[in-house]
Specification:
Elements: H1 10-19, H2 26-36, E1 41-44, H3 51-65, E2 75-78, H4 82-95, E3 103-106, H5 112-119, E4 125-128, H6 130-138, E5 149-152, H7 155-160, H8 164-171, E6 179-184, H9 189-198
Parallel strand pairs: 1-6, 2-4, 2-5, 3-4, 5-6
Helix pairs in contact: 2-3, 3-4, 6-8
The structure holds adenosine monophosphate.
Adenosine monophosphate binds near residues 24, 28 and 48.
């Protein structure tokens, strides 16, 4: 299979060519068509398999092809660590090189100043660790009412780090009409329960 066959937006295909990617990895070939069809998915994949692009590419495709209705964030990516948030932000920069896309990275252990500055302008994608996102939400700095796509990255690690109660609270603020993608290397019972509760 090729990236062209996945019907991704030409601006994304151009960026992938520049990255030197010749074909989708296994998780990309399986997840991307289902996501583009609008399904919720559970992706079982570890770091190193190309899972970041498996959700970043369809998220960017949505931004490129579906007109925005307001100025509030459209995509929310929750991830357990700063390192993963950085990797995702870099991916958005690389794969979204030929489109206009504003990203805010809201991660714990980092100064608030830059995060507040990034929230002072319109944002398309939020990449966040759950605790810090809750922090910004409780201060009324974030409107998540128009989130179109929620991505839970490394859900099993978020479970290990005690983030599940925060995640459940955050999901309570998101519209029911959103698409939800859950990625996890392992499927403990608590993650199965979470996917049954929050994915259609
Ligand atoms: P990840 O599993 O998301 O941590 O990605 C692992 C590495 O694979 C990253 O350095 C990506 O840049 C790279 N990568 C992702 N998709 C592809 C692809 N289709 N072809 C070649 N490299 C890729």
């Amino acid at each position: 299979m090729t990236f062209e066959q996945l019907n991704l937006d030409p601006k994304i295909l151009k960026a992938l060519e520049l990255c030197g990617y010749t074909k989708p990895t296994d998780i990309q070939a399986k997840a991307i068509p289902a996501i583009l069809e609008g399904h919720d998915i559970v992706g079982s994949a570890q770091t190193g398999t190309g899972k970041t692009a498996a959700f970043v590419l369809p998220a960017l495709h949505r931004l490129a092809t579906v007109k925005k209705t307001g100025n509030t964030p459209r995509i929310l990516i929750l991830t357990p660590t700063r390192e993963l948030a950085t990797q995702i932000t870099e991916g958005v920069g690389k794969y979204g090189k030929f489109m206009r896309c504003n990203i805010a990275s809201l991660v714990g252990g980092m100064p608030y100043r830059q995060q507040l500055r990034s929230l002072s302008r319109p944002v398309d994608i939020i990449v966040a660790t759950p605790g810090r996102l809750m922090d910004h939400m409780s201060n009324g700095r974030l409107d998540l009412a128009d989130i179109e796509m929620l991505i839970l990255d490394e859900a099993d690690r978020m479970l290990d780090m005690g983030f599940i109660p925060d995640i459940e609270k955050i999901i309570g603020y998101l519209p029911m009409s959103r698409q939800t993608l859950l990625f996890s290397a392992t499927m403990p019972d608590e993650i199965k329960r979470l996917s049954e509760k929050f994915l259609s």
